[in-house]
Design brief:
flat; binds guanosine-5'-diphosphate; Gyrase A, domain 2; alpha/beta; 16 helices; 17% strand; single chain; seven-stranded mixed β-sheet; Four Helix Bundle (Hemerythrin (Met), subunit A)
């Protein structure tokens, strides 16, 4: 059982308006009280109330910070333990000082994700919900955020529980049949097993179909914008970036910092590849031999191929078309506002009608068509489906696939009249694998691994 009290800075490092230190555990209120001075003692405060006061060093009497302290007593807290949140001024030094005092008074510094881990261990959330908390923190688009939020509320867990319940019923049915064989006709049981397996398999299939979409929402569609100079690549980038504030993440550690830029098209995040290159007017068509552009092209899930509608296709573009034939390409025929010279029919013939989008980036025409084209490629057009349960976690996908193959085996076995106690084993396996998704039967090391992905203080 968890006994110690943990503390950590819950807000990002660096300067900010305020910073919050979170303390959780049996001793949370008592430890905080030793460093707090205000009108009342924290131990006398009612749950879910806030007090103004000061943090001081009990040894020296030195006043360290002016704070607001929130007291939340178990069990109605994130961790289901007593939780104290101390809001200080945002500077790094003062926050660190307050944290050090709490540690001196007996709190232990929390590991990354330990607050969420406690919420899980104390039964407030299940594992798939805890993992959704990671997704919430990392969500790069509004839609990804909504999906994660839905999962953190337990939508996937509910569907998994329904599935498991069906399997338990099936196992019970088989059990009865094993114990009292005279009550049933063997063939009927086999038909029953096959029927139940078919239903469960269909449900797992449905969840797995959402997996690809979930991945896209989480990680974005890796997208390369290609085209010769002056066709409108930068204009396209700017138009996309205006749709929703672009998020730029810098990944250090390479020779030159690689910039990943996210833009959104109707809520679908696109992760643009090598956009710095485009900004520097690197011409991907001319440099097609250059490894970097090759890599960008081969890595991309989606290629936005921009051409100038006011001119006929050029030699380099014809070569590129040959290379792109088998890929996920959307051709953007730009400059629709000018007299058109391009071989539109040829492009439609090669890439298909829905994949050729006519736009004028200058006059903001055609954005909706581009959105539709992207949605039709990656979401079969059904982006606005109300059901936001996407299986997006690799661990969940793996377990769903395992459960799927166990149930397929059960089905096959029933078909060939294998003894039902053997079939029972497959069904039980499927039931256990599904259980691992919600954390019913997972090992400590897996739990540690999952929670270590969190940031400090969460
Ligand atoms: P890039 O070299 O491919 O990145 O192309 P840019 O986005 O820099 O655009 C090249 C030139 O074409 C700029 O002068 C743009 O203003 C112009 N341009 C971009 N889109 C359009 C359009 O739809 N119509 C017209 N007439 N000009 C455009």
């Amino acid at each position: 059982m968890i006994e110690d009290t943990i503390a950590a800075i819950a807000t990002p490092m660096g300067e900010g308006g305020i910073a919050v230190i979170r303390v959780s555990g049996d001793e949370a209120v008592a430890i905080s009280d030793r460093v707090y001075r205000g009108k009342t003692k924290l131990t006398d405060m009612e749950s879910h109330t806030v007090r103004y006061g000061f943090i001081h060093n009990p040894k020296t009497g030195e006043r360290v910070e002016e704070v607001l302290v929130t007291i939340m007593r178990a069990p109605k807290t994130f961790t289901r333990e007593d939780v104290v949140e101390i809001s200080c001024h945002g500077g790094f030094v003062s926050v660190k000082k307050v944290l050090d005092l709490l540690l001196e008074q007996g709190a232990r510094i929390a590991e990354p994700g330990e607050f969420t881990k406690r919420a899980f261990l104390n039964g407030r959330i299940d594992l798939s919900q805890a993992e959704a908390v990671i997704d919430l923190i990392r969500a790069k688009s509004d839609r990804a955020f909504k999906v994660a939020l839905k999962q953190s509320e337990g939508s996937l867990s509910r569907q998994i529980k329904v599935l498991r319940h069906q399997l338990v019923e099936l196992m019970a049915h088989i059990e009865v049949n094993i114990d009292y064989p005279e009550h049933d006709v063997e063939e009927m049981t086999n038909a029953f097993i096959k029927d139940k397996c078919t239903n469960a398999l269909a449900e797992i299939d449905r969840l797995l179909v959402t997996a690809q979409q979930g991945k896209i929402l989480r990680e974005g569609i890796t997208t390369a914008i290609v085209g010769r100079p002056n066709v409108g690549k930068s204009s396209l980038m700017n138009t996309l970036a205006q749709e929703e504030k672009a998020i730029v993440t810098e990944i250090a550690g390479t020779t030159r910092d690689v910039i990943e830029e996210y833009v959104h098209v109707n809520g679908i995040p696109l992760k643009l590849l090598d956009t710095a290159g485009i900004r520097e007017t690197t011409d991907l068509v001319e440099q097609i031999g250059v490894e970097r552009s090759r890599n960008a092209l081969s890595e991309a899930d989606l290629i936005l191929f921009v051409v100038n509608g006011a001119e006929p296709l050029q030699q380099g573009e014809h070569e590129l078309i040959e290379q792109l034939r088998e890929r996920q390409v959307i051709v953007i025929v730009n400059k629709l506002d000018l007299p058109q010279e391009i071989e539109l029919n040829y492009l439609v013939e090669v890439f298909g009608d829905e994949r050729v989008v006519r736009m004028s980036l200058l006059e903001n025409q055609g954005i909706t068509d581009l959105e539709k084209a992207i949605a039709s490629i990656f979401f079969s057009g059904q982006l606005e489906s109300g059901d936001l349960t996407y299986v997006s976690n690799v661990r969940h996908i793996h377990l769903l696939k395992q459960a799927h193959s166990a149930l397929s085996e059960a089905y096959e076995a029933a078909e060939s009249f294998v003894p039902i106690d053997m079939i029972q084993i497959d069904i039980r396996n499927a039931w256990e694998q599904l259980g691992e998704i919600i954390g019913d039967s997972v090992s400590d090391s897996l739990i540690d691994q999952i929670f270590s992905q969190f940031c400090l203080g969460k």
